[in-house]
Fold:
Amino acid sequence: MSPLARPEIVTRGLPPTRPAWIERATSADHKSVALLYLGGAATFLVLAVTEFVLMRVQLIVPDNTMIHPEIFARLLSSAGVTFAVLFAVPLALGVIGYIVPLQIGARGVALPRLNLLSAWLYLLGGAAIYLSFLYTPPDGGVLALAPLSDTVFTPSHGVDAWIAGTGLATLGFVCFAINLVATLRNMRAPGLAWRRMPLFSWAATVIGYVLLVIGPVMLAALAMLMVDRHAGGVFFDSGEGGAPLLYEHLVYIYMTGIYVIVLLFAAGAISEILPTLARRPIFSHPAVVGSLLAIAPLGLLAWMQNMYFAPLNTGFGYLAMTMALATAIPVAVLLFVWISTLNRAAISLRAPMLFAVAAISTMVFGLAGELAVSVIPVAWQLDHTTASQAATLYVLVGGAVLGGFAALHYWLPKMTGRIAPEGLSKVALGTIVAGIHLYAIPMFLAGLAGQPVDVYRYYEGTDLSTFNLIASIGAFVLAAGILLELGALAWGYRHGPLAGHDPWGGTTLEWFALSPPPPHNFDAVPDVRSAEPLLDIREAVRRRTEGWSGPEAPGQELPREPVGAPAGAPDAAPDDEDRSVS
Amino acid sequence: MGLPSDKPPLAARPRSIRWALALSVALAFALAAPAEASIIGPEAPHSPNAGDMSTAYWVMLVVAVLVVLAVNAALLGAVMRSRAGRDRVAARETAGRGVVTRAVVGAGALAVAILVFGVVMTSETRSVEPSGPDGLSASNARFAQVGIRDAPPVPPTEEQEAEPRAPVVIDVIGQQWLWRFEYPGHDPSASPRFSYGQLVLPVDTTVILNVTSTDVMHTWWIPSLGGQVQAVPGIVSQTWLRADEEGVYEGASTTFSGTSFPAMRAWIRVVSAEAYRSYVEQLERDLLEAQGIVQEQVEQGTGPAGEAP
Structure:
């Protein structure tokens, strides 16, 4: 590479003066920060899966005494926060933090140090929860519902670790969201109007605002809980005029928000992957944007859907039911647009496409289940049983795990210049899909037979034995698939085949950058003239190289030739410098 | 469904989709056919409100199964048909405004239909029905629908005034990890009438349950006799039931309440009206006797005896 061609990149040649891990921990480059998030998310996914498998081992047979009830309560309390708060959200934020600035043609982020701080807070939060394993792990349940989580009933400091860890991570998410919204509002490439903004960036925008709403709510709830525990507070103490239901409201607002974020993240990623790998534009860009914008407020306002059984005024129940059913409309529009995009397309069944299709298929199972339990009388029987939990898990595994893996497969070449092994990934995908159905369907039936969530045992002589046995086998298959897929991604990250700068023929600006992108992302940011700027750039390149006998016409090239640099820039050819981000 | 020819044709509509829809309808009805207790349904209802919940469940199951099958068939069908071949050229067209509007209207119509159905079924579930002919002091008192706090009871009709009968009202009190039941007329010292674990109720009689908790959150739930009610300390939640058959019905709490949470089970034993009356009288006699023994021992200084039966 000639330094004269890209003068801004010269300083990259200087030898690093500090160890790599200090560089990684202190670099305010949004890509490095995003890799912190992704590394954390992968780690906590492994931990959540481990805890999940242990709990399912306990539930293989009725009246099992293998895992002590206290240990089970700790596994349960840790697994919930690990999966939702330490895995699902950070995975979304990691992909967003890496890709969105590239996608909007920004050379950095608006508040890079706040962004770095957010990753630190998140990792500290995770550490706070897992360091408590040295004394007492959290044991207040998945939600640490008051008054159970008060010191009277749960004196252990595990709950304090849970509060501190969840609070630190949530504070991190809020910092991240501030930077994300500021970046998206202020740093888009010239010409990249809102209506032209890529759909994943749209999803990121909405996620940013959702975090700005739910983060402070949860922080307030946790602060009150901490005051109740250690400063004589009575926020949630009914005997002293406090309201236990208040905590339930606040924590469900947060959890519903996380659910919405998972849905939005998966929707954003799928809306990028499908058009690219189906070689046609998304069926309706404005419809997807409108759906993303609608899902956030409607979905959040349906938080009381989890509390139909609580002593609420009936009007609130009807409000929640209305909002939950209203959320179904934009979700249906998304499904309609995705399926229409796949029709009359030329789909290449590469791993990102397969994962995206599997994510849609899996999420539909859960969303249909949610549709059923949004009806109050149905929820009175099925909520808080393994039946409604199965529906929730379909959406969370479909969205965060399958949708997340789809996004990682799609953008891994951008992050590392390498592609994840396709064969292994397809095997892992099959395993995950088989596992989730093998787990969720028997759990649904067990819930119909009356199995509550969160139990460490069920009793001999009920129908539950067969269901739980099959579900446990399904859980092991699911866990094996997830670990296999993580292995495939990890292998691809370091050793996968080189992919070039634009392996999928993408249409958005991140494929205009090199893979991996230099610290400043772009040497030159192009003027954006449409929602698919890379098509314009390819067209321009084609026109400039008219004499050259290249591919015939745009739209017929399969795959399209990669364009990794500004039109006419002298160094469009891939250079052989080692580009692994570290 | 035909589309105007000037609009981009929707490829998601061909025959295979219709076939998939027809197949899914057939499958859904085949699945939903056994309306009684079945592996894919909730436990057999034995109370009108549980019956309403069961009806709502079966309807929504059919809707959910249809949605799953239709969307998956359309999705996989599209992927299968549109795989890239050597000369396959992807269409470039996008939706006109009308197409998306139609999708919104279609989904909205389904959502509104479910909403109306949900409100009707919720109302049905919550309206307390009078006791039947075999019930204890059969009551036709029409309460305000339970679940509405601060709403005044609906005044009784003339017919009801002529024959005033009250439903049986039981206090259900959760604590870690046990339910306590206080029967009508309970008075701690004069006439104690309470039991733990198992609630005995008369058959065919309208029963109002006042559910609360003395420590953490619990859920009162006997699937065959009604839905879940959260027991919140400091708040009384109400539910009702009218068991149609004698027998023992089991349920469990669904709110995590600490280490021994799975032990938080509950039973309702439904007996005839006479058996119920004599059970409560026997309960009171036994408790008074036990209290007498304890009192005696305390006076003699031999220390407290065990808990009442």
Remarks:
- The domain at 158-300 of chain B is CATH 2.60.40.420 (Immunoglobulin-like).
- Residues 48-81 of chain B form the longest helix (34 residues).
- The first strand of chain B starts at residue 168 and ends at 175.
